[in-house]
Amino acid sequence: MRDVAPVLTAAERGFEASIDRLKHYLRIESVSTDPAFAGKVRQAADWSATTLADLGFDAKVVATGGHPMVLAHHPGPGGSAPRILYYGHYDVQPADPLELWESGPFDPVIVDGPGGKRIVARGAVDDKGQVMTFLEAFRAWKEVHGTPPCAITVMLEGEEESGSPSLEPFVRGHRKELAADACVVSDTGMWDARTPAITTRLRGLVYVEVTVRGPSHDLHSGMFGGTLPNPINVLASIVGELHDRDRRVQLEGFYDGVGELPTEIRAQWESLGFDELEYLGGAGIPKPFGETGRTTLERMWSRPTLDCNGIFGGYTQKGAKTVIPAEATVKLSCRLVGTQDPQRVFASLKDFFEQRLPAGCRAEWHSHGLNPAIEVPTTSPFLGAARRGLERVYGRPAVLIGSGGSIPAVGLIQRELGIDSLLVGFGLDDDRVHSPNEKFDLACYRGGILSHAAMLAEFAAVRR
Fold this sequence. Notes:
This protein is α+β, with helices and mostly antiparallel strands. It contains 15 helices and 18 strands. It has helices spanning 5-13, 15-26, 38-54, 128-145, 167-173, 175-178, 221-224, 231-240, 263-270, 276-281, 296-301, 342-354, 381-394, 408-417, 442-460; strands at residues 58-62, 69-74, 83-89, 109-113, 116-120, 151-157, 182-185, 197-202, 204-213, 219-220, 305-313, 323-324, 327-336, 362-371, 374-375, 399-403, 421-423, 439-441. The longest helix is centred in the last third of the chain and has 19 residues, at 442-460. The chain is globular.
C-alpha cells in the first residue's frame, strides 16, 4: 500500500488553494432546469473536464439529449488494484428567491458560523463542494505519488437537479466504460460535524403532477358558484383524504413491501442520541409530527411518505378576482422504502383520484420520476475500507445511517452496472440545501478531502 500520510499532509498544505478552486466552480451559474442557463451548464462541464485532465485523467465532455455528461478515466498504478467509479453532479438548483440571499448566490463568500468558517453560495454543498472533495483528494495523490492508488472513473452529470433525463440512456450506452468494482457518491451528509457517516438506505421517489380540469374556461363565481364542480375545491378535497388521522397514507396497497426495522438497526439508531426536538426546532417546529407510533428517525429513514409539494389554480395575484377556475394542479411526491414498487404506487395514486372525481371533471397526469428505494449491503469490503479511511481522519468510527432523500443515480448504477454505491457525504443538517444562503462548512470541506484521500488508500488494499 502506498503511504497515505504524505498525501494527507499535501492536502492540508494545499487547502487554501482548494478553497479558491471551489470558489471558481461556484461562480459558474449551472442551473440545469432553466434553459436560459444552458451555456453556463456547459461551462461547468468544461471546467470539470479540464480540471480532471489537469489531474492526469483522460477526460471528455459527452453530449446527451440534454445537458452534457463528464466522463474521465485514470489507469492508476496498474496491477490488481480495484477500479472505483465516482459519481457526482455539477448542476445546481435555481437561486430563487433571490431577495432572501444575504450575498450573491453565485458570488461565493466566506463567513463565520457556529462551527467556524463556511462558504456560502448556490451549490456549495449540493453538489459542487462535495465533488471537489474527491477531486482535491486526487490532486493530493498526484502531487505526492504521481497517480492515485486505484484505477478511477469519474462520471459527473448536469441534470441531477432537473430529473436526470439523460442519465439512464448514458449509463446504458457506456456500460463498458463505467465498469467498476464499487461506486462512491458524495451527495449525502455526516451524522454531525465531528462524526462521519455512511448512508446505507435511500428512500425511493414517485414524483407526479396532476391537473384536475372542470369547466371549459374560468367562470364568474357569482353566476356559477355552487352549480358545478370547482377544480380547486375538488383537488383540495382529494388531497385532504390522502392521509387518515394517524397520518397513514390511504392509497390501496401503499404499504406493500414496507417492512419493520431489523432489531440491530433499530438499536444502532437508538444509540445515536438523536435529539428530535432540536432537529425540528431548526425548522421552527416545536414538536414531532407524522405517522403515529413512529420516531422522527423512523419517519425520515425507514417509513414511506406522501407529500403535497405545490398546489395552484385560479387567480393567485394580488387583489380580488372572483372566478371558478377551469383547472387546478398539485405536485405530489411519495418517498418509498423497502421493496415498494414505484409503478404500483403511481397506479394506486391515479386510482385514488379517479374514484373521487365528480362528473364533469377529469385528471391529467405527468410523471417527474419513478425510482425504487435502495439499501446498500453493510458486508461489502469496500464499505469496510471506507469506514477505516473515515476513522483515520476523524478519530472515531463512521456511523451507518439512512437518508430521507433520494438519489436516482444510485439505483440506476446498481441496476445497470451491478455495483453498489458507498454514500459518503460531508454535509450537515443546517446547510440549507436548495434554499437561500446554502453553505458548506470549511471544516467539512477539509474533512471530505482528507477522507477521500484516506479512503483511496484503503480501497487500493481491497482484493477483488
